[in-house]
Structures are given as structure tokens and as C-alpha cells.
């Protein structure tokens, strides 16, 4: 079995995939940039055991990480608690993608993982991926397995935190599916502004990116990330795939067989 880990700015999302690529279990925890390798290793081992997975059955570990200071911690934790050298999605790893940006090295590992998964799930289709994370990323992937670039904007959580901390009287609120844009309290007004504001933002960016990337050709719109389910009834996406990044990491492991000794640091 493969253990796949996605380390974002707000949370760690992990999954175990069986040898047939089916999903066995998922885990989540808030990201902590001060965690030790022992704390990380113990968390992973305990989380797997709680879900009925024997850590000894994990053959390989793949990681997508956008927090550089977490990479060393994860590497040591995987070595000591799983006796496994993790494979990080970074330069030098096979992806079967053609990166068409000006500087391929600056593209986040999570965006590349999403692109890998999109090309596997929707072969020969143009795809726009919308990832609702700490930041919202939108990426265009062509039917020729070309990663064409995209857009980045602050996520809903960041926008809510900014309103709550940078204003004198506005409260922190729960991010919800708002029924009305016309709020009758401060909380309703913020919730409506966030929900409908980001609905319009994403809809406009999807249309613009699709047009600029693919012209008059059709494209599939796929959503992932923590708040993607918030918009499941808005006809905004063709599909919502919550574990898209992790599917991409799992595919990356299959593309890079053991023994190639990629991105190892001794």
C-alpha cells in the first residue's frame, strides 16, 4: 500500500491507497510548523492504526509539500517510523507533464499533483482544476498533458480571517452556504459576502482561464479542496474530487519505481 501526504499551509491531508489504487482511508490534521519528527511519526502511525491499517503494510510514501520547513521533519519521520524513504513531488521526479510556465520550478507541488491526477482521470480532455485551499488556485491542463498555468487568490478562510482581525468591529464567522446576499446582521452580511463574492470570483476566473487556455474548445471543470463542497449545487463544476492532490501523489509514485533513488538526502 502507498501512503500519500499533502502538506498545505493550513492542514495535512493524507490517504492510504491499495495496490489497485483504490482508497483505503484518509487522515487530516491542522498543520503545525513546529512539530518534531517524532510527533509527526507518532501521529501518522497512530492515525493509520486507528483506521485499521497496519503501518508495516505501507510499502511507499509520497509527499506533496508547499511548506519547505516541513520537508526535513517528514523525511526523518518516514525513515524512522516506516523505514521508508519518502518521494517528494519536486524537480527531477517523473510526472509525464509538459510544464509550459515561464519558471516551472516555482509551480507548487500541490498544483502539479492536481494536474497529474486530472490527466489520469480525464485523458484527452482539457481540464481546469479549482483547488479551495488556504489559497484558491485555478490551473489549466490540456488534453496533451500540458500544464499551462493559472491563477492564485486568497482562500475563503484567509478572507474571513482578514475581516475578523483587520477591522475593529467585524466578527470572525463560520464559512457556510449562504442563502442570501442581503444580510440582516453583521454575521449574515459577512457570510453572504464571502459565499457569493467567491462564487462570482471563481465563476469569472474559470471562464477567463478556459477561454485563454483552450479558446472555443470544451474543458472540464474539476474542484477539490476543503471548501469545494460548499458550491456543489451551483453548477459551477463538472466534478468534485476531494482527494485529487493525493490521487496525483499516488500516481506519481507509480510513475517513479522504487530503486531510482530520487530526491534522496543523506
Nutshell version of this structure?
With 266 residues, this protein is of the alpha/beta class.
Structure report:
The chain has 266 residues and is an alpha/beta fold. It folds into 2 domains: 2-88, ATPase, nucleotide binding domain (Nucleotidyltransferase, domain 5, 2-Layer Sandwich), CATH 3.30.420.40; 98-247, Nucleotidyltransferase, domain 5, CATH 3.30.420.40. It is 35% helix and 23% strand. The protein contains 6 helices and 11 strands. The protein has helices spanning 37-50, 69-82, 109-121, 156-166, 186-214, 244-255; strands at residues 2-7, 11-17, 23-30, 60-65, 87-88, 98-99, 127-132, 135-141, 146-154, 220-225, 239-240. The strands form 2 sheets. It has a 6-stranded mixed sheet with strand order 6-9-8-7-10-11, with helices on both faces. Helix 1 (37-50) crosses helix 2 (69-82) and helix 3 (109-121) packs across helix 6 (244-255). The longest helix is centred in the last third of the chain and has 29 residues, at 186-214. It is globular, with a radius of gyration of 19 Å. It starts with a strand and ends in an 11-residue tail after the last helix. The relative contact order is 0.16. The mean pLDDT is 94.
Task: Please outline the helices and strands.
Layout: E1 2-7, E2 11-17, E3 23-30, H1 37-50, E4 60-65, H2 69-82, E5 87-88, E6 98-99, H3 109-121, E7 127-132, E8 135-141, E9 146-154, H4 156-166, H5 186-214, E10 220-225, E11 239-240, H6 244-255
Parallel strand pairs: 1-4, 4-5, 6-9, 7-10, 10-11
Antiparallel strand pairs: 1-2, 2-3, 7-8, 8-9
Helix pairs in contact: 1-2, 3-6
